[in-house]
UniProtKB/TrEMBL annotation:
<feature type="transmembrane region" description="Helical">
    <location>
        <begin position="118"/>
        <end position="139"/>
    </location>
</feature>
<dbReference type="Pfam" id="PF07786">
    <property type="entry name" value="HGSNAT_cat"/>
</dbReference>
<dbReference type="GO" id="GO:0016746">
    <property type="term" value="F:acyltransferase activity"/>
</dbReference>
<protein>
    <submittedName>
        <fullName>Predicted acyltransferase</fullName>
    </submittedName>
</protein>
<feature type="transmembrane region" description="Helical">
    <location>
        <begin position="205"/>
        <end position="226"/>
    </location>
</feature>
<keyword id="KW-0808">Transferase</keyword>
<feature type="transmembrane region" description="Helical">
    <location>
        <begin position="356"/>
        <end position="374"/>
    </location>
</feature>
<feature type="transmembrane region" description="Helical">
    <location>
        <begin position="269"/>
        <end position="288"/>
    </location>
</feature>
<dbReference type="InterPro" id="IPR012429">
    <property type="entry name" value="HGSNAT_cat"/>
</dbReference>
<feature type="transmembrane region" description="Helical">
    <location>
        <begin position="51"/>
        <end position="68"/>
    </location>
</feature>
<keyword id="KW-0472">Membrane</keyword>
<keyword id="KW-0012">Acyltransferase</keyword>
<feature type="transmembrane region" description="Helical">
    <location>
        <begin position="300"/>
        <end position="321"/>
    </location>
</feature>
<feature type="domain" description="Heparan-alpha-glucosaminide N-acetyltransferase catalytic">
    <location>
        <begin position="7"/>
        <end position="232"/>
    </location>
</feature>
<feature type="transmembrane region" description="Helical">
    <location>
        <begin position="146"/>
        <end position="164"/>
    </location>
</feature>
<keyword id="KW-1133">Transmembrane helix</keyword>
<feature type="transmembrane region" description="Helical">
    <location>
        <begin position="89"/>
        <end position="106"/>
    </location>
</feature>
């Protein structure tokens, strides 16, 4: 009889906190008015917003260790487990593709023309690829080999980006449009299928998916260690906190030569964010699972158990609602845009506060929906 995987309340809390933060920063009232911590770094550097995506991939890795741990030693089940992982990865990729393809205005929507220009990379697409590859590596490799794989990925990516000449340009570099990853994206995907805000490069591009797998594998190793029943919780916390601190410091040191950069997902960024994620999870584990201080966790657990569902629906809903047009000061605008301008922009003298208030209200709106789902035990597994 298959045993039910252990469940970490601290992991659900961390996942929910991360997804709620992701929705907050993705849905300001106005992109022209956001506080600096709620926006991405212009290029090099790292804001709180730049922590959200790697934290989620780290959590995916921890979840892999918990969900597939019992199947790792039973090689007879590997084929079926990999097939299930593939189905899930395809579902995630298609959900991301739907978000990219779904029109903001049906009045001038042309299906065939949209197919020619739809963005192929994306957040859910990257999660799908990273999840699938990391699942296979977890099942097939020992912990030691997984660690070695992380090292190879990070140093291999560093070497590619810093020493391989860029075709049609010249020396290796880390600039937006002329680095090796941007060239590969334009070559394999063409500019028509890249991030519309840049067109010549993509923050979820092909080459940078390699170090993103490293981020997930750090989570896999952390999850594998947390699952060990023979180690006392205090020992686990001490080792994980120490390991997280070393990763964090390592990222800062590597930043001196290979800058921390989310769009490039640099190796220093992997260490820096992986270290912070390990520290946060170890402290959450100590507080929530070991010492049972968990009263404050419910709102985030509510978000955490339906994380992918709320991420997808919160991206789809504004496009659907804004198809309904409302008169506002002599012009027709989307219904959700009307809510923002009439209720929030007109209620705050500071447009930054108005934009933030709208984003917070958006998060609370989805919390109410997720709370009802949670109370009725509705968990949509993707």
């Amino acid at each position: 009889m298959e045993t039910k995987p252990q469940r970490l309340l601290s992991l659900d809390f961390f996942r929910g906190l991360t997804v709620a933060a992701m929705i907050l920063v993705n849905n300001p009232g106005s992109w022209a008015h956001i506080y600096p911590p709620l926006g991405h770094a212009e290029w090099n550097g790292c804001t709180p917003t730049d922590l959200v995506f790697p934290f989620f991939l780290f959590i995916v890795g921890v979840s892999i260790a918990y969900a597939m741990g019992s199947k790792r030693e039973d090689k007879a089940t590997h084929g079926n487990t990999i097939l299930k992982a593939l189905k899930r990865a395809i579902t995630l990729f298609l959900l991301g593709f739907i978000l990219a393809f779904f029109p903001r205005n049906f009045s001038d929507f042309d299906f065939m023309e949209s197919l020619k220009t739809v963005r192929i990379p994306g957040v859910l697409q990257r999660i799908s690829v990273v999840f699938f590859v990391s699942s296979i590596l977890f099942l097939k490799l020992s912990d030691k080999r997984l660690f070695q794989t992380i090292v190879v990925l990070l140093f291999g990516y560093w070497a590619l980006m810093n020493f391989v000449p860029v075709p049609d340009f010249g020396p290796a570099n880390l600039e937006k449009e002329t680095n090796l990853g941007a060239w590969l994206d334009r070559t394999l995907l063409t500019e028509a299928h890249l991030w519309k805000s840049a067109k010549t490069w993509d923050p979820e591009g092909i080459l940078s998916t390699l170090p993103a797998i490293g981020t997930c594998l750090i989570g896999v190793l952390v999850g594998t260690y947390l699952k060990k029943k023979t180690i006392e919780p205090a020992t686990k916390i001490a080792w994980l906190f120490s390991a997280g601190t070393l990763l964090f410091i390592g990222g800062l040191l590597w930043d001196l030569q290979f800058p921390i950069n989310k769009s490039l997902w640099t190796s220093s960024y992997v260490l820096y964010t992986g270290g912070l994620a390990t520290i946060i999870l170890s402290l959450s584990y100590w507080l929530i699972d070991v010492n049972q201080y968990n009263r404050f966790t419910k709102p985030f657990v509510v978000y955490g158990v339906n994380a992918i569902t709320v991420f997808f629906l919160s991206g789809l809903m504004p496009r659907l609602v804004n198809m309904f047009k409302v008169d506002f000061e002599g012009e027709k605008i989307g219904a959700l845009n009307y809510v923002n301008k009439a209720w929030f922009a007109n209620s705050f003298s500071n447009p930054l506060n108005a934009s933030l208030a709208y984003a917070i209200a958006f998060v609370l709106f989805w919390y109410i929906i997720l709370w009802v789902m949670y109370k009725r035990n509705i968990i949509i597994k993707v």
